[in-house]
What does this fold into?
Amino acid sequence: MYDLSADMIHTPTVVKNIEDATRGIGFTIGSDRLTGSLLRTLVAAKPAASVLELGTGTGLATAWLLDGMDANARLVTVDQDERAPAIARQFLSGDPRVTFSTMDGLAFIEGAQRKGQRFDFIFADMPPGKFFLLDETLGLLNPGGIYMVDDLLPQLKWEATHPAHVSSFIAALEQRDDLHITQLHWSTGLLIAAKMG
It folds into this structure.
């Protein structure tokens, strides 16, 4: 079987550096290289995109997104924590395309909704935007926009409530008639949705 986990996906050097720093603080819930590679590919198909990442973590997915974005694209990445995103800021804050926001995900989504903000690409890697305020988050997505989540396949690190959240989340998406949805049993379990015009 063809091994997609090998470094034939051309992992950016900054991702390798962030991975090393991430291990150094014992952070174990960052996005893997397979997820990152797909993020990079999808966002590359969105020239001058407005991109939202809910859940900065240590910046692993952030780095992949930036690697795929063109010079006119802009990324807002949100996390309520300060410790893990400090690594992301250390390695990525010099990139003028990214804005780091330290705040609760629920508050960010509600604020963006009030301001009428819209995005062409949303990667939801925290409970807000995925398990909470899903409709509001999808309301931030432009027609033709892409919404992606990870961590849908069972994992040892899951909290006890996670399986029920996953089931409810998928059921809610399947009932919508404004999205084309594809689930991937790949990486940590991915779902990609495209919003119809």
